[in-house]
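Students often ask why inverse folding is considered easier than folding. One informal answer: many sequences map to the same fold, so there is more than one right answer. In these notes we will look at a single instance of the problem. The structure comes first.
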């Protein structure tokens, strides 16, 4: 068995890049291998599906499970990020469907946010809470920097990939993440828009902060599937419409993701703020 520069066995249970998104993103790849993984936090949403894109080893994880049976507020985000890191992943791309909060961000808009507002209510959003885990390990209390929640290098890779395919992705904006699973009321939606926030979704947090806590690069790619309730004048957001628009765009989203994967820096060459998330901290637990 050959060991890679990162110390992981260069076999088919290793991946350096993770993609958290639906099965439409990897089901066309040749030689995808299903790898079940468990973690100290429980099982992730599904097995990891490992394959190769542009010569890079990639682990795909269906965020809601392959049958799409796990709603946003019941996803075990800690298990998902931990599972990815445990097979070697150090950079994560997180595509997700969102509602547009400005009339110009209509269905089909791709926006790569640079800021995040957390309006979730009941989600475990840290590994470092000082509480003993089921396996007896006790993490210390750690406060990571989160001023810039997304990886600057990952964002640039995503934006360049989109533009090279004539998809004029919006560079920056604020993703507000709500608890769900219901959609927003018109009043909530108008309030989100009045604050200057750009798009609204249900899964971008705590995914982003848990990635940061594990020292992973995380990039969010938001695909607008609808204008949110306060922005349009019709009946409000319907799940059917969200699915229809997502289905129409999943092919080009996959193309952009694959080009972005090819453009991400090699694991050993990462030199971004994400790599320094733990500087000065004693974590108390071993990361996988
Ligand atoms: Zn980074």
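Output (designed amino acids):
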């Amino acid at each position: 068995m050959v060991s890679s520069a990162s110390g992981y066995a260069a076999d088919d249970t290793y991946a350096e890049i993770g993609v958290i998104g639906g099965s439409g993103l990897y089901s066309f790849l040749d030689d995808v291998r299903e790898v079940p993984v468990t973690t100290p936090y429980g099982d992730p949403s599904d097995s990891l599906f490992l394959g190769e894109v542009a010569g890079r080893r990639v682990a795909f994880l269906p965020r809601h499970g392959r049958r799409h049976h796990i709603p946003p507020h019941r996803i075990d985000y800690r298990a998902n990020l931990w599972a990815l890191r445990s097979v070697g992943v150090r950079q994560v791309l997180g595509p997700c469907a969102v509602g547009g909060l400005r009339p110009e961000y209509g269905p089909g808009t791709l926006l790569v946010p640079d800021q995040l507002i957390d309006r979730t209510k009941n989600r475990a959003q840290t590994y470092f809470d000082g509480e003993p885990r089921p396996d007896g390990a006790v993490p210390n209390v750690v406060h990571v920097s989160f001023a810039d929640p997304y990886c600057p290098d990952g964002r640039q890779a995503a934006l360049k990939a989109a533009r090279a395919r004539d998809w004029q992705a919006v560079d920056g904006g604020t993703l507000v993440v709500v608890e769900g699973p219901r959609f927003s009321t018109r009043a909530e939606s108008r309030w989100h828009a009045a604050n200057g926030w750009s798009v609204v979704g249900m899964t971008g947090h705590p995914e982003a902060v848990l990635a940061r806590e594990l020292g992973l690069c995380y990039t969010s790619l938001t695909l607008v599937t609808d204008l949110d309730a306060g922005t349009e004048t019709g009946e409000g957001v319907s799940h059917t419409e969200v699915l229809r628009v997502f289905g129409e765009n999943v092919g080009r989203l996959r193309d952009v993701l694959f080009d972005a994967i090819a453009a991400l820096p090699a694991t050993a060459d990462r030199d971004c703020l994400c790599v320094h998330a733990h500087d000065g901290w004693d974590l108390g637990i071993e990361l996988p």
